[in-house]
Amino acid sequence: MPRGFRSFHPFVLMLYYIAVIAGLMINQHPFFLLAAFICLVFVNLILDKGVELNKWKYMILFLSLFVLVLTPIFNQQGNIVLWTVFSREIYLEAIIQGFMIACTLSGILALFTTFSIVITSDKFLYMFSKVFPKWALILMLALRFVPLFRKRLSDIQDVQEMKGVSMKDGKLREKAQNGMLFIQILLTYSLEEAIQTADSMSARGYGLQKRSNYESYAWKLRDSYVLIYIIAFSLLIIIGWQLHESVLMLAPTLESIALEGNSWFYLIGWISLISLPIWTEGKEVMKWSFYQRDL
Amino acid sequence: MANEKGITFVGVAIFFLLLMFFPDLIIEHYLFISILFIIAILMPSIIRTSRKNMTSREMVMLAVLAAIASVSRIPFASIPSVQPTTFVIIASAIALGPQSGLIIGASAALISNMLLGQGPWTPWQMVSWGMIGFVAGLFAKSFFMKRLTWRLIYGFIVGFLFGWVMNLWILFSGFGELNLETFILLNTSSFYFDLAHALSNVFFLFLFSGVWIKILNRFKEKYGVFGDGG
Fold it and tell me: Do B219 and A177 touch (CB under 8 A)?
C-alpha cells in the first residue's frame, strides 16, 4: 500500500495543486515567492530526490534569466531610477517585478515536476472519468493505442526502407514527405483494425447499459483532515491577499520590502500550505529511520 | 441543443454585463477573464460531445485519430520544430466535423503531455489544438475549407496563433503587470519556431490534405459513422 502524500484521494491532491498555483499567482511579494520556490525544491527532494526537477533545471534557469533581464528593460513604470542604459531608465520597481515573475515561473515549473510523480495518469484518468465519462473512455483507448502505434510505425519504417523510402537521408522536403507517408500508412492500417475493436466492444455489450466502473480510490478519514487543512490555509491566503498583507505594492509608490507584523503570520500560513507533502512524507521518512535503528 | 445554446447565451450575457458595470475589473484581469470566456464557449460543445450517444465505432475512430496525432511526432523527432500533429487535427476535423475536431485536438494535447510530462502549458495546448480542430470543422462544409488555397492559409495562420497562445502562459504567470510590449517581445523571440510550425503545416496540407480527407470520408461512408456531420 502506498503511503505518504501520494496515497491521498486524487481530488484532495488536485485541490492542493490548484491552491498552490493560485497562491503563487496572487502572493506577489518577493519573500513569499522566494519562500515558496525554496519549499517546492524541498518537496521535489523529498518526493523523488530531485530526479524530475533535475531534468527541468535548464528550462527553469533559462526562463528566470530571460525574465530577470528583460523585464527591467521593457517595464518603464516606476519612480526610482537606478541606472540609465542606452537612454533607457532601469527602475528598481521593474527589477523587483522581474524577480517576482521569475520566482512565480520557477515555482510553477517546480510544482509541475511533482505533478507527474504525485498525480499519475491512472489518477488523472479517474478524475477525468468523473467529469467527462465518454471523453475519458476515448482517452483510455487512445493511451492504449500509443505503444501499439509506435511498434507499428517502426515496422512500417523497416518495410518501407527496404523499398528505398526512408527518412534517414535525402533533402528536408523528401524526409518530411516520406515521414508523412509512413503516418498515412499507419492511418489506413489502424482505422481498418479499429473498426474490428469497436465491433468487438459492441459484441460484448458496450452501450447497452450505463457503464459501471471500478472505484480504486476510496475516501478515507485522513482525506477529510487534509481537505480541511488545505481549505483552511487557502482561506487564510485569500484573506491575506485581500488585506494586501501578502502583496508588495509597486505603484504609486514602492512599499517597504521588509515584512512587518501580520505579514509574518500570513507567510507562515503560506509555507504551511506548500509544505503539506513535506509533513506527510517526512513522517514516513522518520518512521523508516526509526525502524532501521531498532534493527 | 436548446439547452447548450442557452448556456452559451448566458455566458456571453454575463460577460457583457460585467463589461458594462465593472470595466475596471475586466481591464485589470483581462487575460484571466478572456480565458474564462474561451472556456465558457468551449464548455457547451465538450458537454454535448460527452453526453452524446456515440457508437463504439465512432469512439474508437476518435481514439485512433487522437493517438495518431500524438504519435506522429515520433518519426519527425530528427527534424527540429517540424511536427505534423496540427495537420492531423485539421485534416480529421475537416472530414469529421467540429465536435470531433475539438475532441481529437484536446485529446492529442493531453495524451502527448501524459507521455512527455504534464506542465502548466497542458491546458493551453488543449485549448489551442481543440480550437484549431473546432474551427476547421466549422468551416469544413463552406467554400472556405473546400479550396486548397484557403486550407493552406488557415494552416499558416494557425501555426503562428498556436505559438502566440503558448507564449501566453508565461505572461499569465506574471498576472499583475501585463503589457503588449512583453507579449510582442516573447513572440519575436519565438518567431522562427512559429514560422517553422506554420510552414510545415502548409507543406503537409499542400501534399497530403486531399488524400487524408478522401481516406477519412471513405471510412465514414464505408462504415456509416459520423452521419450528421459529427
Answer: no
Euclidean distance between CA atoms A141 and A137, whole angstroms: 6
**Are residues A37 and A110 in contact, defined by beta-carbon separation less than 8 angstroms?**
yes
Residues B106 and B24 in one domain: no
**Domains of chain A by residue range:** 4-124+222-294
Tell if the CB–CB gap between A139 and B219 is shorter than 8 Å.
no
ipTM: 0.81
**Interchain CB distance below 8 Å, A186 and B211:** no
| Minimal CA separation from A135 to chain B, in Å | 6
Contact B25, B36 (CB under 8 A): no
Residue B228 domain flag:
no
B196 shares contact with chain A (CB less than 8 Å): no
Does residue B86 sit in the same domain as residue B150? yes
Give the residue numbers spanning the domain of B26. 1-51
Residue B104's pLDDT is: 92
Question: If you ran DSSP here, which 8-state letter would residue B77 be given?
Answer: G
The 10s digit of each residue's pLDDT in B145-185 is 778 888 899 999 999 988 888 877 766 655 445 566 667 77
Both B12 and B38 in one domain: the answer is yes
